[in-house]
Amino acid sequence: MRGTKKILLIAAMFLLAISACAAPQPQNEFAAQPVVAVVIPQTEDAVPRISVEDAKAALDSGQAVIVDVRSAEAYAASHAQGAISIPLDEFENNIGNLTLEKDQWIITYCT
After folding, report:
1. Where do the domains of the chain lie?
2. Exposed, middle or buried by CB within 10 Å (0-12, 13-18, 19+), for 67?
3. Which CATH architecture describes the domain 44-109?
4. pLDDT at residue 76 above 90?
5. DSSP of the chain
6. Pick from 18, 35, 64, 109: most CB atoms within 10 A?
7. For residue 107, which of 68, 77, 62 has the smallest C-alpha distance?
8. What values do phi and psi take at 105, rounded to 5?
9. Which pLDDT tens digit goes with each residue over 15-35?
10. What pTM was computed for the model?
C-alpha cells in the first residue's frame, strides 16, 4: 500500500507540474506588434496604378493619404489638394521613420 501512495503522489505532482506549464501566460502590454513588410517596386512596370477618381474617393473617406514624391520646389509650385510632400529619396531611404498612418493606404504620385 505504501508503494501505491508514493506512485499516486508522484503522479499528482507530475500532473500539477504539467498543468502549471500549460497555464495561460499573462499578456504583456508591450508585446511585440506584428511587422508589416514594405515592398517598394523596383521598376516602373511593377508600380500598381489607380485612377484619379479612386484616389480622391480614398482620400476623401480617410482611407488614404496622398504623397507627392516630387522635389519640395515642385510641390511648392503646385500639388494635388490634400497631398503631403515627401520627396522620393526621403520616401525610399527613410520609409521606416516616416510619420504616416500605418493603417491608411499610401498613394504616391510624381507628375
Report:
1. 44-109
2. buried
3. 3-Layer(aba) Sandwich (3.40)
4. yes
5. -HHHHHHHHHHHHHHHHHHHHHSPPPPPTTPPPPPPP----SSGGGS----HHHHHHHHHTTSEEEEE-S-HHHHHH---TT-EE--HHHHHHSGGG----TTSEEEEE--
6. 64
7. 68
8. -75, 130
9. 544 554 444 555 555 455 555
10. 0.58
- Rounded to whole angstroms, the Cα distance separating 107 from 105 reads 6
Residue 65: CB atoms within 10 A of its CB come to 18
Query: How many CB atoms lie under 10 A from the CB of residue 70?
Result: 20
Residue type, 35: V
- Chain-centroid distance, C-alpha 89: 21
